[in-house]
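ok here's LysR substrate-binding domain-containing protein:
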Amino acid sequence: MLGNILSDRMMVFIEDGHVFQAFEEVPWKMLTEQRVITLSRESNIRVLTEIGFESVGVPLRPHLEVHQIHTALSLAENGAGVAVLPTYAFTALNGRHIAARPLTSPDFTRQVSIVSARERTASPATAAVSPLLRRIVREMVPEAL
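and the structure:
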């Protein structure tokens, strides 16, 4: 059984003062002239990034590939490039000097869910933690996105 926590969009995370701050949304095609920071191929987020580039007919040529969202954000914050990450990366910002804009044309979302066995009753711990997890995640990610 699935319990949706939130809908997650792909975003571009940029250093303060980056030209993309002038836009409310950034089309995928505008990333072609940027030094793109992506997660490594082992990440399903990387697959979404590749789909975004392919959908506008542009090959993905990462400037840097990293394993952790925190690393991608640190690199973007310090001007090494723009990081393509999902909305939930906002949870890792913690006062960093980074802005983010939704990626569009196309824009796509994924559902972040809690998965449980359909034929089993949730344990008391699971029943208690699930609503708490939903609330915390929703508080950490901006609703406007």
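+1. Strands lie at 2-15, 26-27, 36-39, 64-66, 82-86, 98-104, 109-115.
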